[in-house]
TrEMBL record:
Organism: Paenibacillus agricola
Protein name: chitinase
Domain GH18: 224-533
Known EC number: 3.2.1.14
Catalytic reaction list: Random endo-hydrolysis of N-acetyl-beta-D-glucosaminide (1->4)-beta-linkages in chitin and chitodextrins
SMART domains xref list: Glyco_18 (SM00636)
Enzyme class per UniProt: hydrolase
């Protein structure tokens, strides 16, 4: 079985201003998966998804044979099936085992009945064969392809068998062959110069490949919307408008300093209508991009007071509606980015405010940006998703410098998505926020300082041949290490490779799309990756 890491899975307990913030999410480093190991990305990807864990000795044990029950667990976890209400039968020799709920789910769907012998035994600890893996996966895939299933099993499978011409095809169980060859057809498994080797066992590293390929097949079939935040210094990205479906113009903010009144600010601070805005609007219109006005505010304490100030809210909403109707902009909706609500008592007030905004703007769209809910409790995610058209999850500010925790490790991003889904946000409304940023640790004479270097400086450092660049696990971020004299530097960076992984994650969870904070920070290589989504 896949056992939990004890004392090696990193759990961050972050203390700030008297509060303890916990990310109870394993971020595991496997001591026996070398940097050059061919299975490294597969193993760490499944670990980041929470599908696999490891052993108490902090190893993955790549070369160990995989048991039947372990593979069944992997497949059920991959399918994201609820194991709490399964009604399938569990063979007597599996009842009471850790794997029983997973076996019940698989049994309910008729994926594994062929493994049960005449005595009614599954033999869950028995090493699983390649034939059994392929048959189980084939049944799973054909369940999801109901229109082609009967046609395939009634005869089309034999064409695949003949085309593959495995030297040992005759050794594949005739009853399982249609399912085995469907798995081969979908490129989840393949043969080698020895044939398909149906009776050989499957080791743990090979299982990681099988599950990754299975996830990839389903992920590549998904389509994503892309929202670009055109804010701060985004003018270099004006030509990228055709690559996004929606653009949120970061041109306004809430001004609230006096009880009873508030203002939609558009001419001061960072979030203001820029000079030359007409060119941006024209570019978006030519690309037929949906345009929303982004409204920003990040003072949680003042925001809490504002949400109890009905006259101030009325004044603000009135100005917002006026701006949305301004033909000079042609906004199709509004994107609210109101940050900093940590107290659960604020959640009903913010929800009511969002409902009032939705009523006031009528048919125009409403996007609400929210943080992951680890310690920001002032956001009723389910209620907000019932009101808004889109929920933008800002899953990228996990940074904790004392713990060397960078901004957006993939395991934490995945957990943030799952938490939002569990709270009732439909995947069809959830957008995964991706922020192009870097975190730097600088060590001089044993003293550590931190920085948030600009993207242009990090890109120049990437070109430095003396800097070490690695694909950092388990974070799935680029790690740049170099020295300036006696000063050691480490930079974790959201590069093109890590952005691609987050796009993939959004597809794995069938989310509505991704958002880019902010458009001006993304490089040409990033945009090439985004265009291929």
């Amino acid at each position: 079985m896949y056992k939990k890491i004890i004392g090696f899975a990193v759990v961050f307990l972050l203390a700030t201003a008297g509060n303890t913030y916990a990310y109870d999410v394993p971020m595991v480093t496997y001591k026996d998966v070398a940097d050059q190991a061919w299975e490294k990305d597969y193993v760490y990807t499944l670990s980041a998804l929470g599908i696999i864990e490891g052993y108490p000795d902090s190893g993955y044990h790549s070369e160990e044979a995989l048991s039947r029950e372990t593979f069944i667990k992997l497949l059920v976890a991959t399918a994201k099936l609820d194991i709490s209400h399964a009604s399938g039968s569990v063979p007597a020799d599996a009842a009471g085992r850790w794997s029983a709920p997973y076996i019940a789910v698989a049994s309910e769907r008729h994926w594994i009945e062929f493994m049960v012998n005449e005595a009614g035994e599954l033999k869950p600890e028995q090493p699983i064969t390649r034939e059994e893996v392929a048959a189980t996966v084939g049944k799973y895939l054909l369940d999801k392809a109901e229109m082609t299933g009967s046609q395939w099993t009634s005869g089309d499978w034999s064409k695949e068998r003949d085309e593959r011409a495995f030297t040992d095809s005759s050794k594949i169980n005739a009853n399982l062959a249609p399912y085995v060859f469907y798995t081969v057809n979908r490129t989840v498994m393949e043969g080698d110069n020895q044939g398909f080797r149906p009776k050989s066992g499957l080791i743990r590293s090979e299982a990681a490949v099988v599950i990754n390929r299975l996830i990839d097949i389903e992920a590549t079939e998904k389509e994503l919307e892309v929202t670009g935040f055109y804010a701060i210094k985004s003018s270099p990205a004006i030509g990228r408008m055709p690559l996004v479906d929606n653009v949120a113009m970061g041109w306004s903010h809430l001004e609230y300093d006096t009880a009873g009144t508030a203002k939609l600010g558009t001419d001061t601070t960072t979030y203001k209508v820029p000079d030359g805005y007409a060119d941006v609007v024209e570019s978006a219109d030519q690309a037929r991009v949906h345009k929303e006005l982004m409204v920003f505010y990040n003072d949680g304490k003042k925001l809490s007071v504002f949400l109890q100030d009905a006259p101030a809210q009325e004044a603000f909403i009135g100005q917002l509606v006026t701006k949305l109707r301004d033909p000079a902009f042609g906004f199709s909706g509004v994107s609210l980015d109101f940050e900093g609500l940590m107290d659960a008592s604020d959640a009903p007030n913010y929800l009511q405010f969002v409902r009032d905004v939705k009523v006031a703007i009528g048919s125009k769209t409403l996007t609400v940006s929210v943080p992951p809910d680890y310690y920001y409790k002032g956001y009723d995610l389910k209620g907000l998703s019932e009101t808004a058209d889109t929920i933008n999850l800002m899953a990228y500010d996990f940074t904790h410098y004392d713990s060397n925790l960078p901004s957006a490790p993939l395991p934490l991003v995945r957990d943030g998505v799952e938490r939002a889904l569990r709270q009732g946000v439909p995947a069809s409304k959830l957008v995964l926020g991706i922020s192009k940023q870097a975190n730097q640790w600088i060590t001089t004479n044993g003293k550590v300082t931190t920085a948030g270097p600009g993207i242009d400086l990090v890109e120049k450092r990437l070109e430095d041949p003396t800097a070490a660049k690695t694909w950092s696990m388990p974070y799935f971020l680029k790690l740049i290490q170099y020295k300036d004299g006696s000063t050691a530097n480490e930079i974790y960076y959201e590069d093109t490779q890590s952005i691609a992984k987050k796009i993939w994650l959004a597809k794995v969870y069938s989310l509505k799309g991704i958002s880019l904070w902010h458009m001006g920070n993304f490089t040409a290589a990033d945009w090439d990756t985004i265009a291929k989504r």
